[in-house]
Amino acid sequence: MSIQTGDKIPAAKLKVMGEKGPQDITTEELFNGKKVVLFAVPGAFTPGCSITHLPGYIVNADKIKAAGVDTIVCMSVNDAFVMDAWGKSQNAEELLMLADGNGDLTKALGLEMDATGFGMGSRSKRFAMIVDNGTVSHLAVEPAGGVDVSAAEKILALL
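The chain above was modelled as a monomer; its predicted structure follows.
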């Protein structure tokens, strides 16, 4: 069963690229006492993610933060090296590019998908959520193949 509006974000560790390499960051550090927009993509550097989903958040980052958001997080079931390289290639300086390398948070959220048919293993569904102090206040999960309900513009309109 997937996480729902009103649920608390489960405890998990993710990876972020630091000055000396990948570093742990917990969901508690990310969400407690903050308003966060978290969006997840099936894979870094994939067409829908690189052409549509991530760029929308980059272009709208200032507006999203002006609406009271402390952090905009892009998460994928990739490693921290890939997420860092993808963020740099997309000029995503205003976003926190997080790696859920083993899919631990994705599984805990109940938002994993089987992408073995594409040679990608277990990945995250495409989704976006607004999290207030660790509690989900809005969740938008995309149907397969779409970038609509989780697009930056849709999330911005809800802030």
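The longest helix spans residues 47-59.
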